[in-house]
């Protein structure tokens, strides 16, 4: 595991194959980082599936309304919901969508990100300045690479737990 420099702005995602550590970028996207920490601390991301995983592109998760395998789970609806909190304003920046970066998933409306996010498998620079980048994987990218592919996957992988490192 990489050295954690700022535990308050580091997210630990437990997958079946191991832990993924994500360094948040609060100087770049303070609203998105605060939302992720709020939902993680509430346990909202625990047991939420990766509902859209595209080889060479990204793994998307974070539908806390419809993606939780422990609560009214329906894989066909996973990806259509968010949290009970209001949508976030876009926080676009010059940070590129490189391999391992965390991006905010949203609808066509730039200000519609809520709880869903994706981790880039490769450099996806066509997304630059169109989707908010608010973190990067600092260790455990091999676990992200092993997530089951599909739109949706027949047997989706899930985030077993998501915690702020300061609380772990």
Automatic annotation (TrEMBL):
It catalyses: [protein]-peptidylproline (omega=180) = [protein]-peptidylproline (omega=0). InterPro entries: Cyclophilin-like_dom_sf, Cyclophilin-type_PPIase, Cyclophilin-type_PPIase_CS, Cyclophilin-type_PPIase_dom, Cyclophilin_A-like. The keyword NAD does not apply. PROSITE patterns: CSA_PPIASE_1, CSA_PPIASE_2. Its EC number is 5.2.1.8. GO terms for biological process: protein folding. Keywords: Isomerase, Rotamase. One of its GO terms (molecular function) is peptidyl-prolyl cis-trans isomerase activity. Pfam families: Pro_isomerase (PF00160). Residues 18-168 form the PPIase cyclophilin-type domain. The keyword Plastid does not apply. It is an enzyme of class 5 (isomerase). PPIases accelerate the folding of proteins. It catalyzes the cis-trans isomerization of proline imidic peptide bonds in oligopeptides. Belongs to the cyclophilin-type PPIase family. PANTHER family: PEPTIDYL-PROLYL CIS-TRANS ISOMERASE-RELATED (PTHR45625), PEPTIDYLPROLYL ISOMERASE DOMAIN AND WD REPEAT-CONTAINING PROTEIN 1 (PTHR45625:SF4). This is Peptidyl-prolyl cis-trans isomerase. It comes from Roseinatronobacter thiooxidans.
């Amino acid at each position: 595991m990489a050295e954690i420099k700022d535990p308050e702005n580091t997210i630990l995602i437990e997958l079946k194959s191991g832990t993924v550590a994500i360094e948040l970028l609060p100087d770049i996207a303070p609203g998105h980082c605060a939302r992720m920490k709020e939902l993680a601390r509430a346990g909202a991301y625990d047991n939420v599936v990766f509902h859209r995983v595209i080889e060479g592109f990204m793994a998307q998760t974070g539908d806390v309304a419809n993606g939780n395998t422990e609560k009214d789970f329906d894989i066909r609806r996973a990806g259509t919901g968010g949290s009970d909190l209001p949508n976030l304003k876009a926080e676009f920046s010059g940070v590129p969508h490189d391999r391992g970066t965390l991006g905010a998933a949203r609808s066509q409306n730039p200000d519609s990100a809520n709880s869903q996010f994706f981790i880039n498998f490769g450099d996806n620079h066509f997304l630059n300045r169109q989707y908010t980048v608010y973190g990067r994987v600092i260790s455990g990218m091999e676990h992200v690479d092993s997530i089951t592919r599909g739109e949706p996957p027949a047997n989706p992988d899930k985030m077993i737990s998501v915690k702020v490192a300061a609380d772990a």
